[in-house]
Amino acid sequence: MDPYRNETLSVPDYLDREIFPILLSAMREMLIEVHRRDALKGKCSFNALDCLAEILWNRNSLHPNRSHTWTDIFGIPQFQLWLRSHPRPIYPKSWLWTKEEAALRIQRYIRGWLVRKRADVQEMRQFWKIISAEGTELSIPESDKTDCRKSV
Questions:
Q1: I want to staple 55 with a disulfide (CB 3.0 to 4.6 A). Which of 26, 37, 93, 120 is the partner?
Q2: How would DSSP label each residue in 80-119?
Q3: Which of 69, 64, 66, 34 is nearest to 50 (CA)?
């Protein structure tokens, strides 16, 4: 039982005894996550406020059962209500990629561009563009068709 609950505390004392110990430990945990995701460099999908809210929700000492089953920020009922009235903007996909995934996408784009600019590939692309524009279908003459099921 907390000995400070029965007495009336001043605002600074209440903050020092009740709020800051919980908040500072949650912020410490959040900073570890920031460092793990390397979120201080450039744009990324990590939202520190979401992380802090998630930690405070799941580590709430008044609800010890929450720490056994971790709830994602989007699974918190109050947060779901907030999102209904305050929808978030859509982040560009590049903010959501890891460095490795971004590197792979850039490499894939450059390789595709290098292939598409080759003369033989350009010729083939032009051929198929003409074919599809004319609506011409390639057909096999009847004399060339054979039934594979017939025994010879």
A1: 26
A2: HHHHHHSPPPPPPHHHHS-HHHHHHHHHHHHHHHHHHTSH
A3: 34
Nearest to 51 by CA among 64, 68, 70: 70
Name the token pair of 64. Answer: 């010890």
SS3 at position 36? helix
Reading the block at residue 108, the tokens are 């894939």
Structure confidence at residue 46 (pLDDT): 82
What the block records as the tokens of 18 is 């009740």
135 vs 64 pLDDT, higher one: 64
Of 6 and 19, more confident = 19
Which residue is it, tokens 């009922």? 77
Q: What is the mean pLDDT of the chain?
A: 84
88 pLDDT band, cuts 50/70/90, is confident
* Number of neighbouring beta carbons within 10 Å of residue 51: 21
